[in-house]
Amino acid sequence: MGATRFAKAMAAVVLFNGALFLCAQANVLAGEREDEAKRYAQQLRTTKDSKAKVKALTELGALAQIKKGLIAEALPDVYKAAEDKDPAVRAAAAEALGKAAEPYSKAGTILVKMLKDEKDDAVKIGALRGLAVMREEAKDALPAIREIQKATAGDKKSKLGEAAKAAATAVGGGKGKKQ
Fold first, then answer.
1. At what angle do helices 109-117 and 121-134 cross, to 10 degrees?
2. What residue spans define the domains of the chain?
3. CA contacts within 13 A on the Cβ side of 42
């Protein structure tokens, strides 16, 4: 009987310590994520190197999917990057805007404009990925997405066509094909 009580008491202590560890670990990880977000926001704001901007935008997009608030201070710089002269930076910014859960009324209009006006396929693919993350909120973008699907219909290996199909499926609730 004494051994059973001892085992139960030890199990309770182990359970309590495990829960305490998990709570402390979550706080430490959240603090590390905030530091990461600040570092990438600073990098995006100050660097002139396109590769460094793309890396910062990619990481900020990933952090935004964990918690939007992590990149709140970087959002003005992400919007600015959407107008950068380098297409790789614009593409990364487009995708980051979608991942940041920005309202369609604000970010969606920029992404649709990219779909219509951009000449670089990588930028269009970034915009399509950003819209795909927005899902049904970006339904107003379906006509522009379908235009790209139509334009790339003859090329089965087109990365732009594949991205348009994926975006149409995500935004249209499963309707990846033209209607």
1. 150
2. 9-171
3. 6
Per CATH, is 9-171 categorized as 1.25.10.10? yes
Among residues 68, 78, 79, 75, the alpha carbon closest in space to that of 33 is found at 68
DSSP string over 161-177: HHHHHHHHHHHTTS--S
pLDDT digits (tens, 9 = 90+) for 125-155: 999 999 999 999 999 999 999 999 999 998 8
Integer Cα distance of 179 and 176 in angstroms = 9
pTM for the full predicted model? 0.79
Spatial distance between the Cα atoms of 155 and 25, rounded to a whole number of angstroms: 49
According to DSSP, residue 78 is labeled H
Q: How far apart are CA 74 and CA 44, in angstroms?
A: 8
